[in-house]
Amino acid sequence: MARQKKMRIQDVCGLLNQLYPPFLAEDWDHVGLQAGDPLAEVSRVLICLDVEEKTVAAAVEEKAQLIIAHHPLIFRPLTRITPQDETGRTLFAALRQGVAIFCAHTNLDRASNGLNDWLATRLGMVNSLPLEHSAGQLLKLVVFVPQGHEEQVAAALFDAGAGHIGHYDHCAFHSSGTGQFRPGAATNPFIGQPGVDEKIAEIRLETIIPAALAARVVQKMCKAHPYEEVAFDLYPLANQRQDLGLGRIGFLPAPLAAGDFFTQVKQQLALDHLRVAGPQNRLIHKVAVCGGSGVVLMSEALRQGADCLVTGDVKYHDAQRARSEGLTLIDAGHFATEILMVHPLTQVLTRAADERQWPVEFIPNKGEQDSFSWI
Ligand SMILES: [Zn+2]
């Protein structure tokens, strides 16, 4: 019988960083592994919105060695770790019980197939794109590959995060030509001989990469490339990646009366109440969403002609502005617009682990509750 592959915390962290790259997180945010040993073994992972002392107890109950949370446990610098406050108690329990803690926060918000895509889908929106493109600085990468080796180099590029355009991935362009070089005296060329001019059929392979991934992509590309000296160019681009950024904006399949849309939002987010500002007697077709505290995107939603913005943490003056600008503003609460990340994230990670034949199970945390209730 084949021995069961052993996975480590760092393998799961690597997968999360690939799906939800840390470069997408806000500068003020703290994402990634916050507590635990990256080399410890992992077979079960608990997924939640918030990590508290009781979440660690739930992880122990589920025999999980890792918790993946949306909200960071450690947010401000800690001056002590004692059981006198919730963060200290949670860290104490986690480290004592051998449970690691990983956070995917604003990187999960901005990523493609991340929290805001899940919120948009849940509310019935189609063809949604980021409301704000803040993370999409792009580079064009051109590399010259001897004919016959272009597929392996392209695969390495895509695996490292190159080639995403909108809802398409594995995007590249191949053109053929002739490469010319003369290997130096101290070289060990893949093709040709030192000191002799060489001409060879090469493919010019070009693709697009997020600027923040350049170093990693180039490293993986050079590893997959047969030449000892790889000829490549990086060009800065004026266009930006369209599938990364905060919030989402899209359309309902058909315009809905605002009252019907409110009902739909309540049903989909399992809410009894919504707070609504702005016009209520209108049709809603173009909808903007942002999970958590997304009212900062109100100007962008207005600029792009949204009928409605669905978010949480709306304040009095935001509501006033929505009314005066004619935007229907729905405050569905911070919790309800984010707790929905638990199941899709569990599914995405389960699928990714299956594809890699990793013996790791992902389990959604049950029973998380909003700190607010309606009286
Ligand atoms: Zn949040």
Structure, described:
- This protein has 375 residues and is an alpha/beta fold.
- The protein has 3 domains: 9-105 and 339-364, NIF3 (NGG1p interacting factor 3)-like (Udp-n-acetylmuramoylalanyl-d-glutamate--2,6- Diaminopimelate Ligase, Chain: A, domain 1), CATH 3.40.1390; 112-133 and 246-331, Udp-n-acetylmuramoylalanyl-d-glutamate--2,6- Diaminopimelate Ligase, Chain: A, domain 1 (3-Layer(aba) Sandwich); 137-240, Alpha-Beta Plaits, CATH 3.30.70.120.
- It has 11 helices and 15 strands.
- Strands 5-10-12-13-14-11 form a 6-stranded mixed β-sheet. It has a 5-stranded mixed β-sheet with strand order 1-4-3-2-15, with helices on both faces. The chain has a 4-stranded antiparallel β-sheet with strand order 7-8-6-9, with helices on one face.
- Helix 2 runs parallel beside helix 3 (86-97) and helix 6 (150-159) packs antiparallel against helix 7 (214-224).
- The radius of gyration is 24 Å and the shape is globular.
- The relative contact order is 0.15.
- The mean pLDDT is 94.
- The site of zinc ion has 4 residues, from loops.
Write the layout of secondary structure elements.
Elements: H1 9-19, E1 32-35, E2 44-48, H2 53-61, E3 66-69, H3 86-97, E4 100-103, H4 106-110, H5 115-122, E5 126-132, E6 137-146, H6 150-159, E7 173-181, E8 198-210, H7 214-224, E9 232-240, E10 246-257, H8 258-268, E11 275-277, E12 283-293, H9 298-303, E13 308-312, H10 316-325, E14 328-331, H11 342-355, E15 361-364
Helix pairs in contact: 2-3, 6-7
The structure holds zinc ion.
Zinc ion binds next to loops.
